[in-house]
Amino acid sequence: MKKKILILCCVLFPVFFVSCGKAKPSIYKKTKPLMDTLVTITVVSASEEEADKAIEKAFSVIGQFGNKINFFSDKSELSAINKNAGIAPVKVSDETMGVIERALFISEKSGGAFDPTIGPEIRLWDFYKKVRPEDAAIKKNLSLVNFRDIILDHSKSTVLLKRNGMMLDLGGIAKGYAADLALASLRQDKIAAGIVAAAGDIRAFGLKPDGTLWNIGIKNPRQKSEADELIARARLTNKAISTSGDYERYFMDNGRRFHHILDPKTGYPASQCRSVTVISDSGIFADGFSTAVFVSGPEKGMELVRQAGVDAVIIDKDGGIHTTPGIKGMVTFEDSH
Amino acid sequence: MKTVIKNTTVADKLLFLFMIMASLAGIFISRAALPQGREVVVEINGEKEYAFVLDQDRTFSVPGPYGDTVIEIRNKKARVKEAHCPNRLCEKQGWISKGVIVCMPNRIMVSVGSGAANSLKEVDAITG
């Protein structure tokens, strides 16, 4: 009998140690302030050390890209382009060229509802200090907004803004692209699943450790309290999801809401939507098209998402919800909506 | 005592060892699974620098590029009491009992509990 117990123990102990030694995949999450926002990276990994290393590398990829396209930094490539508007072409990195190329694609597709040359209008507004510019100033700067006046020379990797005073602002697209770059970096580090969330511009890939899809909340554009309140949830993987809303940076003046998503054709905040969420295969398209659809409004916006082959949830100015057929089974609305 | 040890077989000793290991594992598992007391966590530039219990009142300063930011914990709430960043949005946010206060210029994040994730546990990220 004693012998039997001894043998049993000898068999069980190695099993115990083996099961302890091989760590199960877990979720690791870190947040860092980058590109003037909070970036959160979540990864699934069996090793905390490897997860940490991969996350830090992805953060540094975002940081480096952010430095190149920072609108407010004198040292950025974007500033060099803006300073040399109407003067000389500026040599840029592959990342900056890549983001401008895609910005032009979305501008063209949306007929200018998205326009990265919106810079001269953006700089007139200050949503924190509640500064509403003079109508005359808005009108004057409109002549400087036209994406067709961006000249790219691929052979020399240069960018030129045709006219003096023009200004590129990649704010409507850069975070989505940053999420794409970070995801590529994580994949390079053999991370098979995770989420990169550059504020509300999110890319999810792989599955959670329990084999389920990632669950992404979509914020209610008119929440009653300060805590995050959801209007819907999207269960997805290998997709990007971005939202443009009129509630992020805004001020109220005489009952009218002035927010940061400007219509490039008028220079004033676009007023047809409360929020637009776009689900796409890439972060940059989700980010760029969410802005383009927001400016286009629900009707033209739905046509645009169909043409672009992306999915969308549009909350119009009256709170009406418009969706593409593709979101069926992917997005569920909260009970109150 | 001596007879007890003398009468202990190898199997008994192994069983004893197994029980100790199992109870040690239990401590670690329960620590990870059970919620700890509510905390105020201060992160600077993405790194966790301070963690205080929410139940104990205190005021402390955190250095940053725009000077010291004063954080206050009182009556199970936290706030940025004093900041020297350009817009002082963090200061204007006032008291929070859950969620996050962020000062982008100073790269400081003050979170109470586990932030918004507390009430939206099943959500992995939020867009909007």
Automatic annotation (TrEMBL), chain A:
Its EC number is 2.7.1.180. InterPro entries: ApbE (IPR024932), ApbE-like_sf (IPR003374). It catalyses: L-threonyl-[protein] + FAD = FMN-L-threonyl-[protein] + AMP + H(+). Magnesium. Can also use manganese. GO terms for molecular function: metal ion binding; transferase activity. Residues 1-23 form the signal peptide. GO terms for cellular component: plasma membrane. The keyword Cell inner membrane applies. It is found in: Cell inner membrane. Flavin transferase that catalyzes the transfer of the FMN moiety of FAD and its covalent binding to the hydroxyl group of a threonine residue in a target flavoprotein. This is FAD:protein FMN transferase. It comes from Candidatus Sulfobium mesophilum. The lineage of its organism: Bacteria, Pseudomonadati, Nitrospirota, Nitrospiria, Nitrospirales.
Automatic annotation (TrEMBL), chain B:
The chain crosses the membrane at residues 14-34. Pfam families: NusG_II. InterPro entries: NusG_2_sf. Keywords: Membrane, Transmembrane, Transmembrane helix. It comes from the Bacteria. This is NusG domain-containing protein.
